[in-house]
Design goal:
42% of the residues lie in helices and 19% in strands. With 337 residues, the protein is an alpha/beta fold. The strands form two sheets. The chain has a five-stranded mixed sheet with strand order 3-2-1-4-5, sandwiched between helices. A five-stranded mixed sheet has the order 8-7-6-9-10, with helices on both faces. The chain is globular and about 60 Å long. Bound molecules: 5'-O-[(R)-(carboxyoxy)(hydroxy)phosphoryl]adenosine and zinc ion. 5'-O-[(R)-(carboxyoxy)(hydroxy)phosphoryl]adenosine (KG4) is lined by residues 10, 136-138, 163-164, 166-167, 178-181, 184, 267-269, 271-272, 299-300.
């Protein structure tokens, strides 16, 4: 079985081909970062229009990379939500229409399930059950994963997602868009002892997060600082340390609470090297294993959508001819595979 996957939920067009035996055989990504940079954030209408321009050429390119023809494809998966409605509709319409034209089954995939399964694309994939820390630009959550489609949300962000907090803090420090990677880079030059930020919601039981207060804390700290390059780096460092520590405390709690010994980390913030190192060290102490996708599959990509699509199509799950997309969609509503 050869599955074509299409991701278009936000500002990246991702296309990939996954084969049931060979695994991932080709993937292409087009990032709209430059398009949105001058506005300081994603402009939904521009995102949709750009997905229209890029999706078909990327599909052609991915097929060419793999030396495959349209007739080799046996199923198509696409991101059906959650995400920006217009952007989702572009990928879904193109993918669903191609599946109809090529007479192969199609299935809509939950974007966060894609992220959650991305570590399965690596050489030593985790076995079920495990805890998943999903930290992207739109969502932050801890999920107990018993199998494909068997997801129990243990905690989630009550306000800003972790990536959103990185982006907003980066913006107020004038680091441009998208801010997460820029802030992480600057943090390496910061002095860890210069400032101390709170670790929100760690002083009470539970696995929910709240990150919006950290950006206000960063703003106040910046305004009361010398406002020079060193202060900027010190604040970036203190902010990153606070987010990483908070996430690590909650991961530890989730592992202890469920008695599970496997943790996977996915979503854009999962590319953060400081977070990866901290969770690796913590898991070692807990006798637990931590798994990550390679950094390029932490952020949005077509490979994770093709992979999730393959698992569901192999299990016989198929969507009808309607093109359905959802801006909001809980992981807990998914069908079990
Ligand atoms: O998963 P993703 O590509 O898109 C969503 O589904 O939202 O995540 C993007 C988010 C952005 O907020 C971005 O700033 C953040 O992930 N991000 C990072 C890093 N790389 C990406 N945050 C911190 N450190 C990084 N290295
Ligand atoms: Zn994502």
């Amino acid at each position: 079985m050869l599955v074509l996957g299409v991701e278009s939920s936000c500002d990246e067009t991702g296309v990939a081909l996954v084969d049931a035996h060979q695994g991932l055989i080709a993937h292409e990504l087009y990032s709209q970062v430059e398009l949105h940079a001058e506005y300081g954030g994603v402009v939904p209408e521009l995102a949709s229009r750009d997905h229209i321009r890029k999706t078909l050429p990327l599909i052609r390119q991915t097929l060419a990379d793999a030396g495959k023809q349209a007739t080799d494809i046996s199923g198509i998966s696409y991101t059906a939500g959650p995400g920006l409605m217009g952007a989702l509709l572009v990928g879904a319409s193109i993918a669903r229409s191609l599946a109809w034209a090529w007479q192969v089954p199609a299935i809509g995939i939950h974007h966060m399930e894609g992220h959650l399964l991305a570590p399965m694309l690596e050489d030593s994939p985790p076995e079920f059950p495990f805890i998943a820390l999903l930290v992207s630009g739109g969502h932050s959550m801890l999920v107990q994963v018993s199998g494909v489609g068997q997801y129990q949300i243990l905690g989630e962000s009550l306000d800003d997602a972790a990536g959103e907090a990185f982006d907003k803090t980066a913006k107020l420090l004038d680091l441009g868009y998208p801010g997460g990677p820029a802030l992480a880079k600057l943090a390496t030059q910061g002095n860890a002892d210069a400032y101390h930020f709170p670790r929100p919601m760690t002083d009470r039981p539970g696995l929910d997060f709240s990150f919006s207060g950290l950006k206000t804390f960063a703003l106040n700290t910046w305004q009361n600082s010398p406002q020079n390059e060193q202060a900027r780096a010190d604040i970036a460092r203190a902010f990153q340390d606070a987010v990483v520590d908070t996430l690590a405390i909650k991961c530890r709690r989730a592992l202890q609470q469920t008695n599970l010994r496997r943790l996977i980390v996915a979503g854009g913030v999962g590319a953060n090297l400081h977070l990866r190192q901290k969770l690796k060290d913590d898991c070692k102490k807990l006798n637990a294993e931590v798994y990550y996708p390679r950094p390029e599959f932490c952020t949005d990509n077509g490979a994770m959508i093709a992979y999730a699509g393959m698992l569901r199509l192999q299990a016989g799950q198929v969507d009808d001819l309607a093109i359905r997309t959802r801006a909001r969609w809980s992981l807990e509503e998914l069908e079990v595979v």
